[in-house]
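Protein 1 of 2
SEQ + STRUCT:
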Amino acid sequence: MGAPEQFRSGGDNAQRYSLNQRETLDAVLLDGRLELTNNLAERSVKPFVMSRRNFLFCDTAKGATSSALCFSMIETAKANNLDPFGYLLFLLQELPKLGEKPDDEQLRDYLPWSTTIPAYCRKK
């Protein structure tokens, strides 16, 4: 039995929190690809937060959705060490050749982590 609630310290609370979050913490510690903070995500959206005024021109839900899709593609290209302009150019030139409803297998070669992405899309 632990100390009464009024005598518990911040350390007790931190320890209890850590034990309750053990599965999540283990995943972060055991998988080197995961980060303990969301700083990377925060930094990647900062340019868009700073240009909030431009979003006033997204006067419809479809316009806002389209803007979000473009921003997501640009940031994903950056995260995969691609030149965003080259990658978007590649997609805009090649995707129309797949027809109106390409399947997942057809689209796999166009994902930013695909090994078939042309060299001009990669950062130098």
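Protein 2 of 2
SEQ + STRUCT:
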Amino acid sequence: MSTADADGPSDEPFEPIAEEIPGRTEQQAFEEFSQDYPRKEAKKGAPEKFDKALRVASAQNLTDNAHRFAVDPNREQGYTKLPTTWLHGEHWNDPPLPPRQPNGGRQTATQRKMQTAQERHQRLTGLRDNAAPWTLRQIEED
């Protein structure tokens, strides 16, 4: 399996964790995939998508990466793709999800106000440094 470097996750596709299991049928591999994949609804077309995915990836690769995705601590259940979508989009090649940010990555009202005030301060400071003396009164009135 690929590892992330110091700068973040790798963009390389993931390889199977283990070798193919000898004697395992495609049906058994699909059942293992179904057990591991985190969403259990809308699986009607999943066997067909799994068969198509086997044309470009090994069963072990699919099942290993479905398990990796299921146990990813950064996966949010509400944003988890249906199994057919995951298979159709070849998402077994996706790198690990980025770490979650506190508050969903959104700024609080206080943080937005602070950022706006800092940007205004920087803009005014920059204008003062480059402005002609007679324009300072106009800048201060803004």
